[in-house]
Target: Class I SAM-dependent methyltransferase
Amino acid sequence: MTQMKMEFDGHSLITPAAIAGELEADRGERFEEYLAEGRGELALMLELARQQFEKGEDPTRAIDRVTRSLHDIRGRLPTRVWQELMPFIQGHPIAEFFLQDPLTRWSWDKPRGYSGDARLLDFIYRHESVTEDVARATDLGRALFEYTSTAPSSLANWDRRDILAAQVDEVAAANGPGTEVLSVAAGHLREAEYSAAFKEKRLKRWVALDQDPISIGTIARDYQGTAVEAIDGSVRAILTGRQQPGKFDLVYASGLYDYLIDKVAIKLTQRCLEMLKPNGTFLFANYSYPILVDGYIETFMNWQLLLRSEADMWNIIHACDENGKYESKVFFGKNRNIVYGVMKKRS
Ligand SMILES: C[S@@+](CC[C@H](N)C(=O)[O-])C[C@H]1O[C@@H](n2cnc3c(N)ncnc32)[C@H](O)[C@@H]1O
Model:
């Protein structure tokens, strides 16, 4: 992970500019040379793809070619050169085609004011709540949506939702009807729709905490009269102890660590561990390397993520468990685009 200069909590608004500002790499040697080469290569590739769109050629092939090329170029260029080229890519006329995809458009527009909001996840999940938006898109937009919503990173999100639901079910099976669960940065808590324990009313409490009042409102409406309790609260409120939701058999954070530098991630992990009951489990998820769509999401979606390796996950775990009080593991989801850390309190 690139080292950041200052602490970043992402109290509420996580913007690409904020993350990019923190991640700014050094220029390094031959900066200008790499920059000129990169710009030339990108200009050619993007113009070719733009012409393919103009001619009405298969949009899936065109977006796939651009996605793979951006991934390849991003991987080859020094980080700072890539950062410098991002506005050039974003400003290219081909963006007009990509922005017809409702998923790319939502990410680019950021109607909630920050990246990776719960409605973006609904587009990725192809949730019924976005059906009308997708239907309203152009033919090209719908074709591109088929590609972006089933890209490996999107499929990894579907898998993550299933893994979360399965984890809740496992903890509920072990702890019985008194089971209490906390989701930090819950978004729309879509994993609840996949949990048997939730559907069969076998949970005492499933607290869903998020800093976005619209998401909290959606959860409160969708899960009215169930074990789900929606709480409007931020990571900062948890860290400072202003928010004390109680003790839990399972605490998890998904779609959050991707925005937190190690220092904050470690502090949050420590705090989450303090909220566990005896035998409690903590789970955190993070996008990992390599992600095929990294270049596309950083540019045309204007969405920055902090990727973590298996070793990065272990570093967080070790920093929070110097005395071996937890049984821990790190594992990858189905296509290795997302990595998971699990810490279970030893009895
Ligand atoms: C990508 S969504 C993840 C939703 C869900 N957990 C999932 O895995 O599908 C990220 C969520 O994190 C929330 N979030 C971001 N920064 C936060 C913070 N500092 N405190 C609380 N919630 C935060 C956002 O409001 C958003 O709903």
